[in-house]
Amino acid sequence: QSSVPSLTSESNSTMLVPAGDHYTMMEFATAYFRAAQSMQGLKGMSAEKKSAAKLVQHTKAPIQESLLQYSDSDLNELATKNFKTLMRFMGDQSKLKNQNDVECIYEILQLCKEKESLHDEVYCQVIKQVTHNPNQESLLRGWLLLNLLTGYFLPSNILMPYATKFLQLASSDPSSTHHDIAKICQSNLRKNVMYGGRRHLPFPVELEALLKGHSARRLLVTMPGGVEYLTRIKTFAVAKELLQEICEQMGAGEQEEIQEFVLFAIRNKKVRPISSEEYLHDYLLEDKLVTVSLRRLLWRTPLHFENKIYTDVHYGQILWDYLDGRILLNSSKETELQVGILAMLQHWAKPEQQNSDLSREKLKEYTPKTLQSSIRPQVLENHVAMLLRTRQPLQPVDAKIQFIEEVMKLPFFGYNIYFVERVSDDTIPVPCFFGVNKEEIIVVDCTTQEVSCVILLKELQKMRTLQPASEGGLPGIELSYGSAASPKTTWLELSQAKEMYHTLVVILDKTELR
């Protein structure tokens, strides 16, 4: 939406990319500022240029009307009120009684959030107040606000090339005090164009930190296998940047493989995958009750084990999924043999257990909880004892790699498994498991482990989450799939409905990228 109603669509389409010496803010002011209209006809070009230059320079006096022309008097009033708030924040005017810096910033950001038509006006006001500003403290505060504006709100297509040029010129002077923050603003604007800007306004604690000069927040990312990654994330960091940083530390630097990892936000046992293009701060609440974890979601690229952290993370994730019953085993005569081999490898993976006997209690710890009641303890114990007698022990790292390779052979490896309590299809026995991978959704019988239904992701037309049908009931998901000639709809109820829904969204997004 343009904030300059007098412009034609033709001029809008020709002013998108800065070039040469054009697209300066003085040119924009001459063409679109309300005050520029009254200057037309001044004697001599130099007088006109001098007057136009003043329009985009710092002023100590509040403006009496909006910089841009608005036919709506309410917008004009909001614009002049905002300029006063801006001056109070920058220290060019005294604050109101009991008003603080954080409240000033909030007032300006909230106005932009509510009134898209004022985006250009606010951009112009801030740019004006940081241009030829003699007060260093005031100047830095103005740039801090521009840092926030560029990350949250886009200027119109009309103003964009001028704002871009302004930031380009400001960042190209290494001797200036605002050189670095101008570069950050450029980066914010590029991200905003690509990813749409942060959705939620910052919490007071984040703004207070920014005012103190702390531009990055400490974040601890938990990873499988007890690995923790401590980092600092900037105000407008997106998930893909953090994923790249962590994956490179693990020795997984190829883009194809990085795309197979996902960050998850966890709060009160509710898990939500974060899309790679989402802003991390939109998930990090002020109360610090949100934790961020990393998991591998897709398994298309081959694994490689030259990096110890990489090996530990993959072993930790696959081991947890296996023991939690998320990697389902076929219920057959081979089950005890499979569980036995995997128990032995787990035992060897622990350096302190290398030469110790495997007790029945320890064996139970090494067995998936979903199989502990169906596997005969004595048979398993005898089988593992025989394995330990006849096989040469492996070093812990080799045991972990072999464990991973053995589990990857199991029929349901690579599926994200969800326990479903109700399904609309009466032919499906419940409770059951729904598994989701890069290609399909499967329905698995809890008892027989047989697949009773397959929905190809390429046939998934739409889906939506469902509220619980009754108080104390479970949330659900509705899946619409099939062809136009034969459409089908299925709903399912499960406690992890939102997690499954958002996981499907992320998988669909990632598979479309290929």
Task: Walk me through what this model shows.
The chain has 514 residues and is α+β, with helices and mostly antiparallel strands. It has four domains: 25-212, Serine Threonine Protein Phosphatase 5, Tetratricopeptide repeat (Alpha Horseshoe); 216-296, Phosphatidylinositol 3-kinase Catalytic Subunit, Chain A, domain 1 (Ubiquitin-like (UB roll)); 308-409, Acyl-CoA Binding Protein (Up-down Bundle); 416-510, Roll (PH-domain like). Helix content is 44%, strand content 15%. The chain is built from 19 helices and 13 strands. The chain has helices spanning 9-13, 25-32, 34-39, 45-55, 73-90, 101-114, 119-130, 136-152, 160-171, 179-195, 204-211, 239-250, 255-258, 308-323, 335-349, 360-365, 377-390, 396-407, 497-513, and strands at 216-223, 227-234, 261-267, 270-274, 291-296, 416-420, 422-423, 432-436, 440-445, 451-456, 460-466, 476-482, 487-493. It has a five-stranded mixed β-sheet. Helix 8 (136-152) runs parallel beside helix 10 (179-195) and helix 15 crosses helix 17. The longest helix has 18 residues, at 73-90. The radius of gyration is 30 Å and the shape is elongated. The model is unreliable at 1-19 (pLDDT under 50). Residues 58-211 form the MyTH4 domain. Residues 217-514 form the FERM domain. Belongs to the TRAFAC class myosin-kinesin ATPase superfamily. Myosin family.
